[in-house]
Amino acid sequence: MKRVLSIVLQFILYLLAFAAGSFLPVFHILPSLSFRIGAGRVFVYDGVLLMLAFYALILLIAAARKRIPAALVNATLALVLALAAGMFFKLGFKSI
Q: What is the mean pLDDT of residues 67-82?
């Protein structure tokens, strides 16, 4: 039960980070990192980088607590699920 709760909460954290990073360039707070994926389409990958930063932070905390094997599986599963959900919701894609 704890493991499922951990995966769900990390999934929500990663998905919110992906969404926040994807919508952050709209407010012109920071310069955006993006690349063209076609005529008139751009993918803003700030959200993916923010997700990876949270992933690294979670693994660093797990390493400090000496619980790397369990945390690695949980965090990786939540990251992959959040990335798939974010791509399904088309977070980060914008038309120019």
A: 94
Torsion of CA 70, 85, 23, 62, to 10 degrees: 0
* CA distances to 10, 17, 61 from 21, in Å: 16, 6, 22
**What average pLDDT does this structure show over 51-55?**
96
**Rounded mean pLDDT, 45-49:** 88
CA distances from 77 to 32, 33, 39, 84 (A): 27, 25, 33, 11
Q: What are the residue ranges spanned by the domains of the chain? A: 2-95
In our burial notation (b when 16+ CB lie closer than 10 A, e otherwise), range 21-48 reads bbebbeeeeeebebeeeeeeebbbbbbb
